[in-house]
Records
---
Amino acid sequence: MHDDFSPLPGPCSQLRFLQVTRSEALVHLRLHRPDKRNAISDAFLAELQIAFSALPPDCRAVVLSGAGEHFCAGLDLSEVMERSVADGVLHSRAWHQAFEQIQYGRVPVVAALHGAVIGGGLELAATAHLRVADRSTFYGLPEGQRGIFVGGGGSVRLPRLAGFSLMTDMMLTGRVLDAAEGQAAGLSNYLVEPGKAVDRAIELARKVASNAPLSNFAILQALPRIADMSRSDGLFVEALMSAVAQGDDEAKARVRAFLEKRAGKVGREA
């Protein structure tokens, strides 16, 4: 399934820690620091920002995966030891900026998870809009045992996926969830057999990429913000986004195709 992906030229071709390929409207970003279990250093974080800012204009969806035996083992702790408090704040804010670019970017991101999805790696996975985990996946938040605290937006994103209580348990006790537990908790949307996560993520990304771009953009930008609003404000923003999406020419063409029975009806896939 990956044979039709080719290297993306331009700034992404110069990256050390990311392999960036594309196939038609899809871009595949592969974390590529397998000797360090894809741990995220400052240079690695900067490359993530470069990659997401350099997506081709006709990109409709991104698949995010990890090379080697693990998706991502989190923050590169070798860079933590000598930071002052002020440096620590700035470092965390740099993660926030990079991860906001993923969550609130212009295209949906589907993460393919396997092996370790730990600490900052779990925070990175949480920025994706869909997550496919294979059965080798395990999740952890060992910050409590390391004497540190999450700094990549995990305290905001993870409780929305799995709940405040579970995140507290994982951080206080070092509890590790296996793939099935993570699926049940909401850390993944899909669970597949080992080695199948990237294939399934590409399949989902192709389906997502076939949606109307404005509809996808509205979903990415509005849904998480509505969740932060009061009920009345959320309903008003929903009405605005609904009107914007309906007014798009592509939306009108798709509705017309459905009414004229040229588009399939909703049903479960085989």
---
Amino acid sequence: MPDLYDVAAIGNAIVDVIAPATDAFLAEQGMDKGAMMLVDEARSAALYAAMAPGLEASGGSAGNTIAGIASFGGRAAFLGKVANDQLGQVFTHDMRAIGAHFDTAPLIGGKATAVSMINVTPDGERTMSTFLGASTEFAADDIDPVVIEGAKIVYLEGYLFDAESARRAFAKAAGLARASGRMIAITLSDGFVVERHREALLGFLETQVDLVFANDTEIMALFQTDDFDSAVEQLRGKVKIAAITRGAQGSVITAGGETFTVEVFPVEKVVDTTGAGDQYAAGFMYGLATGRPLNVCGQLGSLAAAEVISHYGPRPLVSLKDLAAAKGL
């Protein structure tokens, strides 16, 4: 199979509603600052009514990463489930408009397209309340073998571990990727995902995954330790490559016996951290797919993360390809 894509991602297809909020508003609504919580459709609607005016944009963690890959000039594909409704049509249009391949059949006559209510406090921290809707109906039958077998890197979104059908889709995709000699990557997505599915995630990492993305909170939760260095060493023994982000402290990359520390790119003001990890993964995988050294992959990730936290919204507003060229990357 020829290389059709640099990265093919499987994830929740979600439309984001992003609005400014205060810490007091989060407390009033019973939300844990900085976390992602799952809500039903009624709670999602009530929260939407209570939130400040904001913007709506196609999102979802893996979808945001694919948008970043495309912005770098990479060849990208996305697999995820939307409903045959207005928001589903918006999501489909947005993915195709950035040049990504997206051809998953929509859900008809079932749940509505997924929506994530994202409240951003003045410090740039985002707190998400997500109605997963139609995205949870993604199943093994939605896996396109041509896409998976034709991608240099197959990227899986940890949030999908919340749905049994999606985990079966993961297994099918991993099998196809492994048989075709493709690299398998996963993002742990959120500390609460790790807490809910620790054993399943550990098993999947050990048997299927080549590259893992996580932040410091997630890997410490994965190994149930408060010692970051210990968690890094344990993760090193389970996957070929690990890229761990640490907010303002930059990121740590491990591969075999090598470790790289990558600094952040400075930004004038942190406006909204939504999508920072997603764009870091985009830059890193774009670099890996195009033959860059691991430290440069980390720098591309940091550059993409810096761009996205400088404005509202989880996807780049300027060409990451042009930014990378300007930085000599």
---
Amino acid sequence: MDLASFIGVGLALLAIMIGIGSDLRLFMDITSIAIVFGGTLGSLFVAYPIERVMDIFKVLMGIFFYKPNDMNSTIRELVTSSEKARREGLLSLEQDVEKIEDPFMKKGLQMVVDGIDPELLKSMMETDLDLREEEAMMYRNMFAYGATVAPSFGMVGTIIGLVKMLGSLNDPSAVGPSFAIALTTTFMGAFLAYVFFMPMGEKLARRLQMEMRYRRMILEGILSIQAGDNPRILEEKLKGFLNEKELKSYESSVSPQVAEGGVAGGS
């Protein structure tokens, strides 16, 4: 679960609710909601494939209930595979491949076991990376597009409300509702853009960066295992993909294991 996303949306909603106070009903205008939400959704259907737009709720669930990749565990797993491959040969990894949960890593190690040429393996894995990045960027761009379109439909609603208001100046009872549409559509468009589409799109962009770094680390590890690199050299290569905080976490997780190994060896 991504606590930051829950906190961020919660704070934004709280700030808005404090501003609205007890007059929430005034902002829940059905016409304004239909113009902004309906118009934005319709525009997304025009701009993007229908199956991508239909996935928007699944993507949202993934944003809020996100499980980050365990960089430390993956490095240790790759180093262990490297040690085994150096000791027993690449074919010895075949039994371990089935136990790997990450599809990208599993695919790469399976190709190593199958004896795929290193250049071909690298090309195939990089193609996989490019396709994954392209797919993720489509969702990110879809949210960025929504952030642009929603305020525009808010302005469309504002123009509709003003036209209706000017057309009913002779009827004072109709001026108020028309002016309400003009203002609440602007509010709805801004709400949808700045609480929903824009921050979610930025979150997806950051997640994509982390995902690509993680997968490129795996690719580097797989190529090193295939090349027969020393496991310690491999470990240092993979540690280069960690930021300062992640590196400290990795070093602290490895140190106890080294200490236990030393004690065991001494006894």
---
Amino acid sequence: MTIAVDVGQIRNLEIAALAWISAHRGDFALDDDAFTADGQVDLTWKPLGELAQTCVSVRRRTPPSDPLHACVCDLLAFAWQQTGRGELFLRLQQLEPFATYPLEVYSVFAGAGFRHAGYEAAAATVARTRGWRRTEQEPTRRLGLLNAERRSGIHRQERPAQALSRTWLGGLPEPWAFERTAGYALTHVVFHLTDWGRTAQDVPEDLAAYLADWLPPWLDTCLDAGLWDLAGELLIVAASLPHPPDTAMLQDAWTRLARAQLDSGAIPLTAPDTTDEPDPGFVHCYHSTLMAAFAAALSVDLLTRETDGPGLRTEDTRNRYDGQGAPR
């Protein structure tokens, strides 16, 4: 029996989450710490890049007539302005020529049509060196870098399938081996394979079948444990696979995630230890709130648009609403 999913509930969660993100846009702004040798990248460039990626992904799945489309376009323009319209990536290139995070963040903007020719030329020069191509990375990070290079117009002979085969998910591990670290690794493998939900058909059939079997119990485990951030990422994966997820699973997951959302619209990384804990701050809410908004946009789009066949999504969403909200 097919259970109808309450799309309105998911939509309301998305609206509240994006309202919180908009109200806290100043917390995503770059400061001088973003350019110091010992600066905390995870508290400067990483949040800004994640804001941009979420906005790009929500924009792609939201029609221009929807007020949320204008909201994420505005936030994306804000994020681009924070980079000096791309100029600050050149500054990072001078500070850390072989760091990969500048290209990874820049590629988010490049994939959305926000480009800086000078930085791309500089990045391409470094990418031709042996030092860059022999950089040792975890396989999941390698897969992400290959996607970042492709988005930025840099191409190498190494194929994503090579990196995929060395990831945790690519090995189709025993399902009981799932834990938090593996969970974040597997979600990012799917993010990179599908270019953050653009191309569901790029998930290999064996991986898609494996995830169809084991994603539901893993998601249920995370929700039971109050791991709201990882649960949001797993919901993104569910909406990015070639075959639509089980509707009963979706309804249960979104109901539980909606209960975790605070009155402010934020969603904490994890459930609090006690019911009387104060609202967590920005650092403990921003990522999980972004991921919930991202997952909601994909899920609403998936549940409301037509499919091309029974149980199979063949539509490539790479150009669904791209080009709306041009760079400025």
